[in-house]
Design a protein that fits this description.
The chain is mostly helical. It is 75% helix and 0% strand. The protein has one helix and no strands. It is rod-shaped and about 60 Å long.
Length: 53
C-alpha cells in the first residue's frame, strides 16, 4: 500500500498510531450509529402497531 501524503505518511510510530486510532474510532462510530438506527426503527414500528390497535 502506498503511503498517503500529509500527516499520515511515513512509517513513524505516531503515524501508525494515528491511523489505527482513526480506524477504530470509525468502527465504533459506525456500530453505534447502526445500533441507534435499528433501535429507532424498532420503536417506530412498535409505536405504529400501538396506534393501529
Amino acid at each position: 500500500m502506498a503511503p498517503l501524503p500529509g500527516p499520515y505518511s511515513g512509517t513513524s510510530t505516531l503515524a501508525l498510531v494515528a491511523r489505527a486510532s482513526a480506524f477504530s474510532v470509525g468502527l465504533v462510530y459506525g456500530s453505534i450509529k447502526l445500533k441507534y438506527l435499528q433501535a429507532k426503527a424498532k420503536s417506530h414500528k412498535k409505536a405504529e402497531a400501538v396506534a393501529h390497535h
